[in-house]
Structures are given as structure tokens and as C-alpha cells.
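Researcher: First entry.
Model:
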Amino acid sequence: MEILGLSEPVVRLMSFASIFIILAAIELLAPRLERDEMRGALKSRRWMTNLAMVVLSSVALRIIFPAAAVGTAIWAESNGLGLLPMTGIPLWFAGLVAFVVLDFAVWLEHVVSHKWPWLWRIHRMHHADTGFDLTTALRFHPLEIVLSMLWKAAIIIALGAPPIAVLIFEIVLNGAAMFNHANIKLPKPVDALLRLIIVTPDMHRIHHSSDLRETDTNYGFNLAIWDRLFSTYTETPRLGETGLEIGLKEWRDDRPARLGWALALPFRYPPSARPSETADQKSPLGNQRR
């Protein structure tokens, strides 16, 4: 698949690099939080680990699932698979439906990764980061990236999602994830307006709180509607934006910034390991998470 003479991987790489550079510059000019984890030597170690993680995940995905999302959509289209082609609706509308359904599927996958013990032990590597910036959006274990792609591929085939819609979704999702993990300060009126539609950094940062009452909320990566619809939305952190503790209570040292430690985390500790939870911190959904 080509866009303006450029192959799909090149288009995605250019989009990723452009968004990353812009957000990195904004983080330097207008950081939301200024903490030890987000500056100096520890920031450098975190960035090296998080950037290495996205490289390893990309390699693993290319080896295990070379078709990726867009390739899956092209294959489904060429074989006449999926519900949307059967409806006869216009391409633009089919693309819009596919975009919204895929966004919900990613939100649902995220919720399940917090509730199912064996998925949580993989996903918690993302939450173990003691800092919160745009590289945190890249900090996913290769196992999680592969499993996520299998889930998206199943949805794409079931829908018969148009390949161009899948490409747009993948670019938007990656860009949105970097944006809402970015350590940038938005004016309150702008944040309040944006979060009616999309997930903002202040909104998603709450999800990275070490307090389970907040970790089990704000699961969205792109569209903000799902957390409101399913009552998993938290507007502000209990300790305030600057008092919010990020990461997992078990690991408050520099271990999460080490690449080897992060890669081994799903296998190093039992699936029951989870953030500490006091009696007054237990949430209605918390008992399912291990």
C-alpha cells in the first residue's frame, strides 16, 4: 500500500518521527512536572530503555506478524471478508465505523490487561515506569505488542475494515498515545475542551497513579468517550496534579529504568504481584486485578 508514492511503513515512520520530535521539543519548553525521574541521568536511562523497548517490539512484530494491521486489512479485503463490505455502505462511512470500533477494541483490551492476572503481569511493565513522558507511550513489552496486534487483526478481519482506515487509525493511535503520555502543560481551558473528545496528558497521567483507585480509571488512549460511557473516568487526581505519585509502589527505585529488568518483569514475579492496596483504597473492580 502506497500513499503519495511512499510505502505504508515509510508513512508510519515519518509520522511517528515527526510527532515524537514535536512533542519532545514541547516537553523541554513547557514541562508539566519537573521531577528527578524526568530530568538528568535517570531520565536518560529511562529514555534509553523505553526507546530500546519500541525497537525490540517492532522487530518482534515484524518477525512474528509481518503483515501487521494494514497488511491484515489488505488481505481481508482481497478475500472479501468482514461485515462492513456486506453492508454496501460508502467507503468513508465504513472507514469511520472501523475507526471507532477499533478504538473501542483498544480501550477494551487495555481494561482486560488490568483485570486478567496473566495479562497484567505483562502490562505492568508499562506502569512500572516511575516517570511519565512521551517515551512512556513506547514502553510496552514485546509480548504485549504481539498480543495486541493479534487482537486488532481479529477485529480488522471481522469488520473487513478498509485498509486506508486502518492506516489512519494506526497513525492516529500512535500519535495520540505519545501525546497523552507527554509531560506537557496545557492551559486548563484547552485541556477541558480537548478531553471532551480525546484523552489529554492530564487525563491519562491519572491512570499511571500508584493509587489503585486512580490506576483503574482513564483507560483510553485516543477517544475520551469510552471511560465516560463505562464509568471509569476520573477528572482529577486525589493528591493534585503535582502531588500524583507515578508508577507502582513495589518498585520506587531505578530498577524500572533498566532494560533487562523491564524485559524480565513478566517472568520475574508471580502474577499476584500488584500495587499495594490498603483497605480504603480497594475499588469495586480492584478485586479482579492481580
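Researcher: Second entry.
Model:
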Amino acid sequence: MSIKKRLILSNIGMVLLPAVLFLLLEMVIGYVLFYPVKGSVDQEDLEFFRSIRIYLLVGVLVLTNGILTFLVSKSIIAPLLRLKQSANDISRGNLDTKIEVSGKKDELNELAMAFESMRSRLKEADAMQKQYEENQKELIASISHDLKTPLTSIKGYIRGLSDGVANTPEKMERYLGTIEKKADDMEALISELLLYSKLDLPNVPYDLRELDLASYFDDYLEELRFNLAEQPVSLRLECEPNQSYRVQADRDKLNRVVGNIVQNSLKYMKEGKKELVVRLSSKAEDVTVEIQDNGAGVSHDELPHLFDRFYRTDVSRNSATGGSGLGLAIVKKIIEGHGGTVWASGGAQQGLSIFFRLKKGGR
């Protein structure tokens, strides 16, 4: 019942209840005083009855109005006091105490529900802020580590050059080549960081256009086959010729997605025969892309973390493979920016499959 209806009924009750109760009590007292009397009524008894009526009326008014006022006030003030306490808790930063919400359909319950919704959202925002701060700390620590390693190496080789350790043209060339490679690694890391930071911003523009993934991957693998001509890599595209693989995608960003996945696969493939298979699967609303390699794979425990920034699997923790740890994190950002999803499957020594799903064109 709404507060307005409650107050209206209370006001009506303050008029009707005293009147009804007064009449009932008057009838009872009159019956007690005069029913046994035979003949005329004694004047003193009549005066006494009249005086009692006045006190009775005042008593009934005070009693009924007091009870009604107490009940109505309790039903309004008690929830307000609870809300006040909850508001004080929230102002002190205590967001864990849940606000009590009753099943009553009134303004106070709606207010309590609004407060509880606010508390819940503030708690979520606080958790997100703490997670963001923790991520920032991890980001700074990871950047510091990944930049310090090549910098230390560069300083060592420069010191070797200045000390005359590279005393032959061959050594000097090797030292300079190493310095250049480490500088390139730093440049690549900084470029990845800049891209990831841009993708992390809200409202990143996407130039979405209709794109046939079958034709796209056919051309992409042909170019990749040419670039990897000197490496024993088997490249294959699997798709049904009578299916539609047209999606809405930003071609430049899709190039980055596929490039990062392919480079990740090539980096961790086994020695000898290397295989990379791209499979397309079409459904009514979307197209799923699978890029599978025959590399070392990762454990099932590591699969959920592959798309975390700066995450490196145990098999990748060596200087030979290198990498920024941002490649698959960038993949996730771009695919989610398209409104799609990305995931991985596989197991240790079973190769790795990276999947992503994009919405079909015209949808």
C-alpha cells in the first residue's frame, strides 16, 4: 500500500474509530448504569453519566489517535531510519552491507530498492576501479621488465664496443647487429603498447564493411605462402564452397588480428613439418574462423589466460621466442570491438586452435 493511501486511511480512521468506539463504550456504560433501574432514572446517575461521556470521548480520541499515529509513524519512520543508516555506511565507504528490501509495494520500498541498486553499482564500480589500479601496476611492472631487458643488453654491447672488446670487424658487426635487433624489439613493444592503449579507449572507430572471409583468407594465405617460401610450412584453407562467409569487418584491424594469431602460431610450432590450417564455419547470423597449428600447444589451465595482456605460457618463457605478450590481447580487443567473441582450445603437445566469431554482413 502506498504512503498516500496509508495516510488517507489513517486520517479516516482517526475520525471513524473514535466515534465507533465512543458509541460502543457509551452503550456499554449506559447499559451497566441504567438497565437494572426500574422506573425513573436518578438525576445524580444521569449527571454522572454525562460527565463520564466527556472524559470518555477525550480518552477515546487520545487513545485511538495515539495508536494510529504510532503505527503509521512506525511504518514510515523505521524504514527511513534504516535507509539513513545505509546511506551513512555508503558515505563511509562500506558497500558490503546489503540494504533490506521488503515485499511491500510502496514508495519507501521503491526508495530502498533504488538505494540497493545504487549500492550494488557503486560496489561494482569500486571493484572495477581496484582491478584497474591493479592492472595498471601489473602493466607498469611488465613494461619496465620488458624494456629493461633489451636496454641492459644494449648497454652491455655498447660498453663492449667502448672497451674495445669487439676488436675485429666481425665482432663489431655482430655487436652492432645485436644492438639493432634489441632496439627493434623495443620499438615493436612500444608499437604494441600504443596500439593496445588506443584499443583500450572508448569509442575506437571501426571502418566496418562487408568482407568475404573465404576470398580474404585465400589471398592472405597465398601472400603468406610466398613470404614463407624458404620455411617448411603447410598452409591450408578449409571451407564449404556453397556457403556464405560475408561478414562486417574492418579490414585493417582484421589484418592485425590474423597477423598476430599467425605469428604466434609460427613462433611456437615444432621443428620440422609445420602446419597451419584455417577453417571457416558459417551459421545464420555469424561466421566462425579457426586458425589451428601443430605446435607445442598449451595446458588446459593456461587456455583461459592466453588473451590476458603480458601473459606468456611456460613454453614461451625464453629469449628465443621473445614477444611482447600483447599479441593475443590485441586480438581480443579488436574482435570484441567488432561485437564478436574469441577463444582458444587445445592441450599440451596437441597444437593450438584460436577461434573468433564475426557477425555476417547486412545483419
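Model: Note on the second entry: The first strand starts at residue 209 and ends at 212.
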